[in-house]
Structures are given as C-alpha cells and as structure tokens.
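Quick one:
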Amino acid sequence: MKITVLGAGTCIPSKGYSAPGYVLSDQSSTMLVDPGPGSIARLSALGYDYRMLTHVYFSHLHPDHTLDLLTLIQALGATPGWQRGDELVLLGCPGLTDFVEALLRTYRDITPETFDLKIEEFGADSVNLPEWCATTARTRHTPESLALRIDSDHGSLVYSGDVADEGAIVALCKDADILLCECSFPDGHGVADHLAPSQVGRLASSSAVQRVVLTHLYPPAIEADVVSQVQAHFSGSVVKAYDGMTIEI
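Output:
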C-alpha cells in the first residue's frame, strides 16, 4: 500500500504546500482522497493516470477538500479518443449525495454519459472496499466530518481529515502503522476546529501509532517546528509532509 501526498497544505497558497489531496494505491485499486483544487494536475505530474482511479473519498465537504472533483469528472468525460466505461465510486461523509447532485445541476455539461457515478455515504462504521477494510469515525470538525482508517495485508493507515477533538478518533487510530494527521497551526494559535501539535502528540501517544505524518499545514505551521512540538508528547517517528511525498506501508 502506498500513499502519495498531492497537497500537504491548505486553501492558502504556499510554495511546496498545495491544497489537500492524496492518492492511496494497492494492487488493483487507486483511490483519490480529498481532491482539493489542483489535485488532478498534481496527480498527473507525479505519474498517476487519472483514468485509472477507481474511488474518490471525501472526509468532509469544504472547498479545499472537494473542488477538483469537478475537474476529474470533466476530464473523465472529455478525454479525446477514450471513453470510460467503469463506474467511479464516490465515498465519504453524510451529505455527499446531495453535494454531488447539486454540483451536477450547476455544471450540467459535465454529467457523465459513458460511465456511472456510484455514491456511498459513511457514518461511523465499517465498509468493505475491493482491497481494504475501511473504518470511519466522526472528527467534530463539522457535523459530517470523518476520519478514515484503512487496514490491509500490508498494514494500517489512518487519515484524520480535519479534526476538532483528538479524543474522538483515539480508538480509530489504535496501533495504526501510519497516522496521516492534520496539524493546521502551531501550539498557541488557539484554533478550535483544527488540531495543534500538542493535540496530535497526545493522540498519537494515546493510540500507540507507529509513525505520524503531519499535513494540512497553514503557513504558520509550515514555518514553525511543529515536529518538535508533537515530539514533546509522543516518542515515535514524526515527519512533516510536503507535496509529492510518498509513503510505503
């Protein structure tokens, strides 16, 4: 199982830290996770073929995590000399169906003609995917926001999405090999709907994860030594993500 970071930043333009976007791939399945603006272009630049995507996952429905869904649907329906026949599975938080239907009403010309969009909404539960067992938990960033855990024969990954309360996802993170965790601002910024490094460290320590990869970094977090701030509460491996980073499990 491989995770590639398309964007380790936020909606704020920052060199080397684009809006959120990730690719999770394992054998026959390739899943795009939280396709923020510019994700499809970065996907191509990193050697992935957008036509091979099987799933797209949405942790929540804020613009910085969703905008390139439109780009993807349009590209899949407008590639010269090629037609997609396989369905594209859209997975994620409650409200996803209404969200996608509203987009297609607004952008009528991109409604797929040769393939179907299959939409599956998750609550706080488990679902079987072709290559993985997926489990979700509420993060309290918004009422619908979810964190996602993927377990496979190769190991386990938790993607936090955006999180307001680290305690909400401790059980989900238990003994995970990798926690790809938002760390939006350094300690002391006092943002209630995102995690600070001390919270990430306590979450990682409480759940006994093996490795933490910090992502969703606003400019103050990019500039600060957030790794050391996490390590003050967690003795395991901690690294700061960047655009193009690849993680093998």
